[in-house]
Amino acid sequence: MALARLKSMRSVHQPAADSRSIAAGAAPSEAARILLSADRNLLCASVDWERHEAVFGSADHACYTVDLRRLKKARTLLGKTAGHREWVAAVCHLPGGRIASGGLDASICVWPAAGAACQRIKGHAGPISQLEPVPAAGAAAAFVSASYDKRLITWCCPGGSGGKARHQQVLAGHRAPVLQLQVAGGCAASGDRDGALLRWDLAAGAAVGGPLQAHTEHCTALAWWHVGSSGGSADEISSRGNLLLSGGQDGCVRLWDFRAGRQVAQQAAHAGPAGKGAVGSMSAGPPSAPNLVVTAGADRAVRGLEARRNLEPVWSQELPDFPYSQARSTSAVLLGCGDGTVVALEAADGSRRFALAASASAVRTLHAGPTCFVAGCDDGSAMVYSLT
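Request: output the structure for the sequence above.
Response:
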């Protein structure tokens, strides 16, 4: 299994960073380098900005929490009778401070807000590829898991921070391993290794319509697009859970309108004369540029696409190495590269704000918050950079 396919960049309670904190041309100051795993990669991460906590999943089978106020490791989530027996491929924060983690051992662990005991739950017959929290107002489920067993499962956690997590609904419909998962309110979208997409009604526990053949190869990235700004216009509200961006191993980015059940825009953003560059990550609709989609690909390129103009490219930048991770602030996009570099670009025009050497190895995960951004690296270290 390719390591790059197992990355997860999910977070909850993630307010946008103040763009004024990221000065043009000047790199933020390094607040801390925290060694979490002596010799194994950090593969995935989630950040709860309200609790000032980051959690990282590692190839050493453990999860590690970091206190972002004290800038130090808080807990190691692994034990003789608790935790995973294989790589941790996905993590997410849950309401009440709990943490869910998914491993290549096909198990899901639900960890309490404090301590290192866990509830180990089984439901999948293959490695976990993604975990996504469900907003409290979206559905009864607390989170959704996706797996190489071609299924999704919704899980509920009664009693806030205390009740036991339990299996809720099995969502079956994919014909290939599920690689990508995104949740918007009471809807979810998933993409598989054959390039097919499915949209789900989480309350009903059923697919909405049949599979859409999005890509000729693996689906490698998904992002919801909410029309308009971060406000509450009728146009934006009606689009939630309906407009989905997909990226594939074929180098193409496509926009889907589930209300019409069809593709409405496409762009070969990372496919050209030199060959195909898989779309590794996407983000859409920051307040400063609500119709802009930013994609990063295996061709080492970052592109800004205008969603309302058939995903027309409006800017392009080359990166020093393969982009493993992407995070967004109010007006900047940060890219974590295979050579350990973090590059920050202005979202509106792609101009460079700064580049810094975070590690000697790949920056696997990135999350940007109101006062700092957090990187997880292949050398087992978590880097925290101050934006103030």
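The chain has one domain: 3-386.
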